[in-house]
Design a protein that fits this description.
Layout: H1 2-17, E1 23-32, E2 44-45, E3 47-60, E4 65-70, E5 75-80, H2 91-105, E6 112-118, H3 128-144, H4 150-165, H5 172-179, E7 184-189, E8 195-199, E9 205-211, H6 223-240, H7 252-257, H8 259-262, H9 264-288, H10 292-309, H11 315-324, E10 330-335, E11 343-349, H12 353-368, E12 373-376, E13 384-386
Parallel strand pairs: 4-6
Antiparallel strand pairs: 1-3, 1-13, 2-7, 3-6, 4-5, 7-8, 9-11, 9-12, 10-11
Helix pairs in contact: 2-3, 2-4, 3-4, 3-5, 4-5, 6-9, 9-10, 11-12
The protein binds alpha-D-galactopyranose.
């Protein structure tokens, strides 16, 4: 699939620009084992890059002109790097312009021609947008020696989303896309950006994604609202417990003491965050000890919290999670990513996937009239240059 993607992208480049692309880059989507909605709450997350990519075929220009072709959308955007870069009314362009805007401040002067194409489904919670931002950042950094670290590339991607797209996302997606490593999950401390890799060895289990096919965009979802709610919550907590600097210093007991002051909604949001931060640490231990029953239980607890307390799930995803709850071959299931649609991530016994998918797909179709999609993903390396350019 990767080979085909690269081939299609490079062929399209040749067709449009009558030249072979000089460079090819691949930027992956991500999954997250556990640690949802805590990246912007100073928590820990446990994501990994996956074998679904955006492929960029690119050549430098001698002047400041840029042409970007979104092959899958059959759309193009042309501009001059010397022009002021501002958000426009095309979302995919804004992810890119937001990155380039920052890179101009860091010395980017020369233009380029790019064709990109993707195997990361859009709006499925697999971070196609982070892959796009980080792919562009990484590519420019390599081509024009901008001297950026991987961490800076991830932060630039995140800032692009804040400033040019309007979603106040955390750092998890961009970090996972850039720092991904084959067969390793990343335990990221979102407060310090320190990270460690843990072997993603699920033994006789595998990770299965069930895609609700309900598309989300966090610009119109409740994502930014959740951020505001927890910010308000933290301010109240801090004013009563000055020793609390971040949610990490906050306990469930403190929240109980403040329950009335926080009010029902903000209490629920904060309670989820405090519990989820702990769950990630427990999950890392469970993974290290190959205690998959524990890991699965933690994932399912996360889902309950996301659905009932943080309220970022939706009927379709709740259905998918509930539908596998009594399946002995499934150890854990939860919604993944920002929510309001997208995928559930399931820890399932290897070999049981096919039968499980058929069964759930049937129930899902009958209930919602929507076709279920599923992905068995492999944990792969982060954004990188693809060197074997003679693929076609
Ligand atoms: C989206 C955001 C991330 C993170 C997740 C929820 O994917 O981009 O920063 O907050 O939602 O965990």
């Amino acid at each position: 699939m990767k080979k085909k993607l690269i081939q299609n992208t490079t062929e399209h480049f040749e067709k449009l620009f009558h030249n072979q692309a000089k460079h090819i880059f691949l930027s992956p989507g991500r999954i997250n084992i556990i640690g949802e909605h805590v990246d912007y709450n100073d928590g820990y997350v446990l994501p990994a890059a996956i074998n679904k990519y955006i492929c960029f075929a690119i050549s430098k220009n001698q002047n400041s002109e840029c042409a970007i072709i979104a092959k899958d959308l059959n759309e193009a955007y042309k501009f001059d790097l010397n022009d002021e870069l501002k958000p426009i009314d095309k979302m995919w362009v804004n992810y890119i312009l937001g990155v380039l805007h920052q890179l101009k401040e860091r010395g980017l002067k020369q233009g380029f021609n790019i064709v990109f194409s993707s195997t990361i489904p859009m709006g499925a919670g697999l971070s196609s947008s982070a892959a796009l931002e980080c792919g562009i950042g990484y590519t420019m950094n390599k081509l024009y020696d901008l001297g950026l670290s991987k961490e800076e590339i991830a932060l630039i991607g995140q800032k692009s989303e804040h400033t040019f797209v309007g979603v106040n996302c955390g750092i998890m997606d961009q970090f996972a896309s850039v720092f991904g490593k084959k067969n390793q999950v990343i335990k990221l401390d979102c407060n310090t950006l320190e990270y460690e890799y843990h072997k993603a060895d699920f033994k006789k289990y595998s990770l299965l994604l069930l895609d609700s096919n309900v598309k989300h965009t966090h610009l119109t979802s409740g994502y930014n609202d959740r951020r505001n709610e927890v910010e308000q919550g933290l301010a109240i907590i801090k004013s009563h417990f000055p020793e609390v600097k971040t949610f990490r210093d906050c306990s469930a007991i403190m929240l109980l003491v403040l329950k009335e002051k926080l009010g029902e909604t903000i209490f629920k949001r904060c309670h989820f965050v405090v519990k989820e931060i702990q769950r990630v640490q427990d999950a890392v231990n469970a993974l290290s000890n190959s205690d998959f029953i524990k890991l699965g239980n933690l994932m399912s607890e996360t889902h309950q919290g996301l659905s009932k307390e943080y309220e970022v799930s939706c009927d379709e995803i709740d259905f998918l999670v509930n539908a596998v709850a009594n399946e002995t071959s499934v150890l854990g299931s939860r919604m993944m990513g920002g929510g309001f649609g997208g995928c559930s991530i399931n820890l399932v016994e290897k070999g049981s996937e096919k039968e499980l998918i058929e069964k759930i797909a049937e129930q899902y179709r009958t209930t919602f009239g929507i076709e279920l999609k599923s992905y068995k993903v492999k944990i792969s390396k982060g954004t990188s240059e693809f060197k074997n350019i003679k693929i076609s």
